[in-house]
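Tutorial, part two.
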Amino acid sequence: MLTMAAACGGPTNMANAPASGSETAPQGGSASSSPSVPPPGKPQFDPPRGAVRVPDNRVDGTALPKTFPKEVYSDNGGTVLVVRAEEGGCGHALGEAVEQTAQKVVVDLSETKAQTGQMCTMDLRHPVISVALGAPLGQRTVVLKQSPPR
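Running the prediction step on this input gives:
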């Protein structure tokens, strides 16, 4: 019982823990000259500087589970969507614009499957992921949907 309590007493989200010998900048700070680019292999949890939040009335997340985040930003002149996704354990969030019309952009969110035989944590993370668009978002609605892990 004591071992379980000690194991549970550590950080709750190891995805934000620095690797051995590395340092992280404080929230809003800068560890390098390019703060919006995460270090290789590290998930990004904040939208890039300069990204503009898409108003909630232009984000349709009704197809997502109730607890799934429904946060979308536009970046790079509206040609890139930055979407708050969900991943856990050994999975990594994925996103793809599967439909782009004059009225809407449909973004399919998923995550990679964990490899069999691999030990995975039971944490839940909400990184932001980038989804390229064929044309600037403009006034189109963003429709979020979720597919099973791939």
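The first helix runs from residue 2 to 8. In part three we will examine how such features are distributed along the chain.
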